Amino acid sequence: FLVDQSGRRIQSGDLAVGSVVTVFPEGTQDSTRGQAVDQTILIRLSNADYTTRKGRETWGPMGYVAYSKLCTHLGCPVGLYEQQLQLLVCPCHQSMFDVTIGAVPNFGPAPRPLPQLPLYIDRDGYLRSQSDYKEPVGPGYWERS
Fold first, then answer.
1. Fewer Cβ atoms within 10 A, N terminus or C terminus of the chain?
2. Distances (CA, A) of 58 to 4, 6, 36, 64, 132
């Protein structure tokens, strides 16, 4: 389940189009790992299912998309959302990521897109992840386990 900072599960009707919220895997919102690595930004782009890239046709139910908040440049939290341009902005070095096409960087030093979390909505209307991220989160120089 995706939960907010207080541990409340996110439902499909919670966000209006253009809204964002930081979410975590349920149970990690108050943990060191949750705060450091598992932070995810959830954005509602539309009311209809949304595909950001080929092969991700089922990842954006009801217009919800989710990306790692860790910048692929140096790991700063990418939490600024420019709604009109649909860009996530890293406050450290101003990398900009286009959320409509898979968070591909279109400005700044970030070398690769933010990893996208595949989502689905369960029968009770809660947002959940289909799996973990398919790519490593954070900058490439981080050690991975």
1. C
2. 22, 28, 27, 11, 14
